[in-house]
Amino acid sequence: MNFNKFYYLCNRNPINSAITLANTIPIIMKLSKLFISSLIICSAGVINASVPVYLDDSKPLEERVEDALSRMTLQEKIDIIHAQSKFSAPGVPRLGIAELWCTDGPMGVRPEVLWDEWEQASWTNDSCTAFPSLTCLAATWNPEMATLYGKSIGEEARFRNKAVLLGPGINIYRTPLCGRNFEYMGEDPFLSGKMATEYVKGVQSNGVAVCVKHFALNNNEINRHTSNPIVDDRTLYEIYLPAFKMAATDGGAWSFMGGYNLFRGEHASYNPILMNDILKGEWGWDGAVISDWGAVHDTDWQANSCRRRWRHRWSDRWSSFRTPCRDHPSRLSPYHERHPSRI
Fold first, then answer.
1. pLDDT tens digit sequence for 89-136
2. What is the pLDDT of residues 21-57, one digit of tens each?
3. Is 147 helix (H, G, I), strand (E, B) or coil?
């Protein structure tokens, strides 16, 4: 039997290909090594040619992203930037793009919660390590410890099939009364930035994205949806932004989380100054921004003021809170005029 006949028999009836191949093994063994090598190379070329660019690991990331976007419908593009549950966004099953699952938090992978509620799901296989607070981590002044911390928590997130770890939190302490100071890294911008950079590298070495939060000036829990810190440029750039900049540029963070608060009258999660001018413009950062839960009050304004973001919902029970930010009282009068005693 010559090779042309063998090839014809195999392809004419795929069901019998295995039988035909078994009967002709002696013939194949007689083929020259050079011919077999050529056949393998040609077959590999055919296989690679059939793999879409967005699924080809050998292609540059930007090229893969553009290819995936070109194949998606408008509805699919809208879907993937909106949450479908408390901690997930839908993928694109048609293209084999998986769902995106996030998890709190900076100090340990959160136990699973119900689909669209904060109540615990009461799983028995979602145990995790409770790591020391980020304040404790920063107090070590040990970047190597921060790398190990990030790598360890990233491993647990990867084991739990999480794509994004919602941390680290690196807001600078502005008041000792802030309810989330324990999960931030202190008052020193340089220390916070150095430790955050190594934390980011450690987590992302596992293929899990960090989500650096809460950008920016989210230093207060009371009235956190309406507080509007009054900060001049020098204070902003010397105290409140350096840690975020280091996490973005030195750490290479893949995502950021916008804060609840306002900055100069506009909500931080879609603030043109913070997101466009500083984060993407001055720092040249090209990652994704995820809004904090319930931090988006106007999707039209958000879409037109800031690009490249994922909007997360709070809960259907809180839908009435999403008032248009342009009509929100916090935009109509400065915070210090409404609450002078809290400055």
1. 999 999 999 999 999 988 999 999 999 999 999 999 898 999 999 999
2. 344 444 434 433 333 343 333 344 444 568 999 999 9
3. helix
Active-site positions read 292
Contact 247, 282 (CB under 8 A): no
- Going by the DSSP 8-state scheme, the letter that residue 290 receives in this structure is E
Closest CA to 287 of 223, 192, 185, 211: 211
- Bridge partner list, 256: 212, 289
For CA atoms 132, 133, 135, 138, the dihedral sign is positive
Hey, what amino acid is at 339? H
CA distance 293 to 224: 12
Nearest Cα residue to 287 out of 87, 65, 107: 65
Helix axes 242-249, 189-204, angle to 10 degrees: 30
Residue 292, judged by CB atoms within 10 A of its CB (0-12, 13-18, 19+), counts as buried
Place of tokens 């980011």: 200
Terminal Cα-to-Cα distance of the chain (whole angstroms): 91
Among 289, 282, 252, smallest CA distance to 61 is for: 252
Distance of CA 73 to the CA centre of its chain: 22
Give dist(CA 167, CA 133) in Å, integer: 12
| Whole-angstrom distance, CA of residue 3 vs CA of residue 51 | 28
